[in-house]
């Protein structure tokens, strides 16, 4: 079952975020707390959304996303920040169903795209995405401003 996340899901979503970070070899980079996620998802001005996949009443996966905007299309889109299904629940269609739910939302609301990033070494995920019809955007390179560089620029 795929459903919209509720506040009671926050501890499980954070646990799954940490599992994802471990898989991506970046567990040391997770600084988010339950309070951070609760505020972002359910605070007075939520800016992100999440859907969860349940198996026998247990959350086994999630998709966390927010709105983007394409000036070229002149429409919003969905940016999928994280998609993760626990290893023991993989192969049962939960990832596909989570993405299908986002595609349905985009379609119903007239959004122009659903997009995300994937690590170049994550061949299982790349194969999964390609099987769904997703295409890599190889001509684009992601840049990130964070930490000291972000602070330095902000204060200049």
From TrEMBL:
<dbReference type="InterPro" id="IPR051016">
    <property type="entry name" value="Diverse_Substrate_AcTransf"/>
</dbReference>
<dbReference type="InterPro" id="IPR000182">
    <property type="entry name" value="GNAT_dom"/>
</dbReference>
<protein>
    <submittedName>
        <fullName>GNAT family N-acetyltransferase</fullName>
    </submittedName>
</protein>
<feature type="domain" description="N-acetyltransferase">
    <location>
        <begin position="1"/>
        <end position="156"/>
    </location>
</feature>
<dbReference type="Pfam" id="PF00583">
    <property type="entry name" value="Acetyltransf_1"/>
</dbReference>
<keyword id="KW-0808">Transferase</keyword>
<dbReference type="InterPro" id="IPR016181">
    <property type="entry name" value="Acyl_CoA_acyltransferase"/>
</dbReference>
<keyword id="KW-0012">Acyltransferase</keyword>
